[in-house]
DNA sequence: CCCAAGACCTGGCGGC
DNA sequence: TGCCGCCAGGTCTTGG
């Protein structure tokens, strides 16, 4: 899915295209995604003006004059802006139609996404309140990871994928950050030193920052607000590259599984 | 609380 | 060509 860089790329792309527009109506074409799509409830936004779009973790928070729309792109979701009517294709599940005839459309083949209308500030919503710190916040530090990991026996790969620990990472960027910091994804989180967690935090920020600069990573589905793919795929060092030479030492990159997720790593560079 | 496994859903790909 | 099993960027729930 869309991990933090893809969600943020989407936010930046669509905000200037739709800020200030008024909702004409919201159209849903399936009964539910990850949660039921409540058409009548969503249409309480009729006539409301879009004030701003924020992001928290992998969620987009659309702030309207009459409430909020909370959107998650799941595994395969993307949002695309159309300046005038465009016939919906398969998997185009939700349209936010604006009074000037333009439309923001959610396409999500696997339907793991989510669209909710909220009357109150979504920051207090159960889905967001349990998310850990943003990777670029001060709170997210080597000391923070070190403290939270003491006594924990799960692999560091799973630890970093847990949104309660840090928000916004997914399988691609976890694999990349562990490679950049030289940490074996199978290591027990509780066995990693404070110093190595400092390195890991830098690696997470470095990888996410570079992915943002490239407009995110497109493996198959992801597109930004105007349909453009993300180019960080070309810069991935280990994700999806099992069997290829390590970009640092040329040993063959390994592929494995941790908790039903694929991991990619170099046995020589990552300990 | 901690951890592992499976559930949700559709499409694409490799293998036979 | 056609079918089958497996895999996929996420997250929630269940059960030990």
Structural topology:
Blueprint: H1 4-18, E1 23-28, H2 39-42, E2 50-56, E3 59-64, E4 67-72, E5 78-82, E6 92-98, E7 103-107, E8 114-118, H3 126-129, H4 142-149, H5 156-161, H6 171-180, H7 194-213, E9 254-258, E10 261-265
Antiparallel strand pairs: 1-6, 2-3, 3-4, 4-8, 5-7, 6-7, 9-10
Helix pairs in contact: 1-7, 4-7, 6-7
The protein binds a DNA duplex (16 and 16 nucleotides) through helix 6.
Summarize this structure briefly.
The protein is an alpha+beta fold. It has 7 helices and 10 strands.
Describe the structure.
The protein has a four-stranded antiparallel beta sheet with strand order 1-6-7-5, with helices on one face. Strands 2-3-4-8 form a four-stranded antiparallel beta sheet, with helices on one face. Helix 1 runs parallel beside helix 7, helix 4 packs across helix 7 and helix 6 packs across helix 7. The mean pLDDT is 96. By secondary structure, the protein is of the alpha+beta class. The chain has seven helices and ten strands. The structure holds a DNA duplex (16 and 16 nucleotides).
